[in-house]
User: Fold Probable nicotinate-nucleotide adenylyltransferase from Arcobacter venerupis.
Amino acid sequence: MRIAIFGGSFDPIHVAHVIVVEEALKTLNIDMMIVVPTYLNPFKSSFYLDPETRFKLLKKVFKNFDKVQICDYEINQQKTSYSIDTVNYLKNLYNPSKIYFIIGEDNLKSLDKWQEIDKLKELVEFVVASRKGFESKKAKEFKNLDVNINISSTSLRDKIDLNYIPKEIKDDILNLQEKGKSF
Ligand SMILES: Nc1ncnc2c1ncn2[C@@H]1O[C@H](COP(=O)(O)OP(=O)(O)OP(=O)(O)O)[C@@H](O)[C@H]1O
Ligand SMILES: O=C(O)c1ccc[n+]([C@@H]2O[C@H](COP(=O)([O-])O)[C@@H](O)[C@H]2O)c1
Assistant:
C-alpha cells in the first residue's frame, strides 16, 4: 500500500488545496491520499474555524474522491499537531510500503525546524506543491506538484471570494458568514 499524507490547517479549504490533491492522485501512483486537518499548526497561535467545522468541510469537498480519506487523528488530540506523531500513527495503522508527505512551497522555509525532522525525513518522502509568491530554490530537491494558484486561506479570511471556494461548500461558507463569521 502506497499512501500520501496531505496535512494542513484548511482554515478554510480553498481550490488550490483541491488541485494539490488532484495533482497528487494523477502523478504519485498512490493507493490512498490521507488529508489531515491540524488541530493547530505548531507555528501558528490560533485557528479561525473550529477543528470540527474544518473537518466537516473537507469531508464534503472530497466526498466523491474514491482514494481520499479525511483523518481526524490530529483534531481529536485537541492540542498542537506534530507531523511526526501523525506519520507514526498512520504508519502503524496501514503499514504502507511508501509514504509521501505533501507540503506547499511556502513550508520549505521552515521545514528544517519541524519536530524531529531528521526522523521524519527517514519515514516519508516530501513532495512540494509549487506556490506562486513563495518560490524557493530548495523545491528542486523534491518531487514537485504543479499547482501555481495564487490563493491563500489568509486572504479568504480577510475577504471571502467564492471563486476560490470549492463548489460543494459555497453554501456552508455563506451560512457561516450569516452566523457572524466575518468572511
Ligand atoms: N495556493 C497554494 N499553492 C500550493 N500549495 C498550497 C497553496 N495553498 C496552500 N498550500 C499548501 O497546502 C497545505 C495546507 O495549507 P493551509 O491550510 O495552511 O492553507 P494556506 O492557504 O497556506 O493557509 P494560511 O494562509 O492560513 O497559512 C500547506 O502545505 C500549504 O503550503
Ligand atoms: O511537525 C511539525 O513540527 C510541523 C510544523 C509546521 C507545520 N507542520 C505541518 O505542516 C502542514 C501544513 O501546515 P499549514 O498550517 O501550513 O497548513 C500541517 O500538517 C502541519 O501540521 C508540522
Remarks:
- The mean pLDDT is 96.
